[in-house]
Amino acid sequence: MSRRYASLLLCCWVVLSQVSAQDAQLTQFYATPTYISPAFAGTGLQTRVGLVARDQWPSIPGAFVTANFAIDHNLSNLSSGLGLMVHHDRAGSGALRYTSVTGQYAYEVQLKRKVFLRPALQVGYVNHAVDYSRLVFGDQLARGGTVGTYENMNGTSVNYADMGAGLLFFTPKLWLGTALHHLNRPNQSLLLNESRMPLKFSLHGGYRVSVRTPVIRKSPQSFVFAFNYKAQQKYDQLDLGAYFESEPFFAGLWYRGLPLFKRYAPGYANNDAIAVLLGTIVNDVRIGYSYDITVSRLAGQSGGAHEITLGFEIVQRHKKRAASKRRVVPCAKF
Fold first, then answer.
1. CA distances (Å), 262 to each of 233, 236, 299, in order?
2. What DSSP designation does 137 have?
3. What is the share, in percent, of the chain residues with pLDDT greater than 70?
4. With helix as H, strand as E and coil as C, how does 32-100 read?
5. Which of 8, 107, 195, 309 would bridge 189 by S-S if both were Cys, CB 3.0 to 4.6 A apart?
6. 112 lies in a domain?
7. What is the pTM of this model?
8. pLDDT value for 87
9. For the chain, how big is the Rg over CA atoms in Å?
10. 180 pairs with which residues across the strands?
11. How far is CA 82 from the centre of its chain?
12. 103 backbone dihedrals φ, ψ, rounded to 5°
């Protein structure tokens, strides 16, 4: 067995022993914005559907694979939005799995003309599981057989409720929001002891700038500048980037890391990745692809990260014109 593979198995065991991992990373988080905060529920024209599939560090055995499905609906008559999200993660050759189903509700308050505030809550049901038979333990290597420690281990699955909240402020050009996840600090231990999920805080926002052209275009061009900062236990991260939108085409560039404010060790800056994003709209379906270029010490070994997104909005014909004139959060579509 190679040294790299042995190191990965050791890392998996550490994760299973401590079980206080961070939430999954998404590059195109605005393709399913309710993953960032429940306050985005109902900010589309009417009914919005988004799907994200991510393969992180594919060159490393047992890397991370993530899928997220989200649907939300605007209840304009009630100044409210509803959302439903299904999220699934697996790591360590599928040994460690995390699946959640989350319901979301947001209420919209109009502070003044074209200025809005949206407080929101979410409640989810989570299944956190591990398949010990997919892991290799020391006694299995020593004996050269298949009978191992995992046969005597208990606690292969745990279920728990998970709560969160969000707040979003926006105008036609600006948005700024914050969210708190895992408010109830659920116990996610798989070893029949206590390991509380750390609270996650996020601060996100951005600004949209329209590009003036000498010719009036059916689909105006614009630049969108955005950021997303999140902190969970000792881990924190900043995503900073910009999009150029000229429908039906979109392009974006993102940086992930905190080099000026945090270092892991002397001479080791907190740089993670540079992400390149391309997207288009085909028959009202948004299709996005992004690739994360690793710039940390894993560069050249991780294989980066691939992410594909699909999204579309369902708007009834007789309501489409009225819905298009309604306020819409100016954040990016990918």
1. 14, 9, 19
2. -
3. 79
4. CHHHCCHHHCCCCCCEEEEEEEEEECCCCCCCEEEEEEEEEEEEHHHCEEEEEEEEEEEECCCCEEEEE
5. 195
6. yes
7. 0.86
8. 96
9. 21
10. 165, 201
11. 19
12. -105, 140
pLDDT digits (tens, 9 = 90+) for 30-71: 999 999 999 999 998 889 999 999 998 888 776 789 999 999
Q: Considering the domain boundaries, does residue 283 fall inside one?
A: yes
| Count of Cβ atoms closer than 10 Å to residue 160 Cβ | 15
Indicate the helix (H) or strand (E) that contains 10: helix 3-18
Tally of structural domains, the chain: 1
Which residue has 């991780």 as its token pair?
Answer: 302
- Residue 264 confidence (pLDDT) above 50: yes
Q: b/e map of 39-58 (b: 16 or more CB within 10 Å)?
A: bbbbbbbbbbbbbbebebbe
Please count the CA atoms within 13 angstroms of the CA of 255 that sit on its side-chain side: 7
Range of the domain at 13: 3-325
The CATH number of whichever domain residue 97 belongs to comes to 2.40.160.40
Contacts of 283 (CB under 8 A, 6+ apart): none
User: Is 331 within the bounds of a domain?
Assistant: no
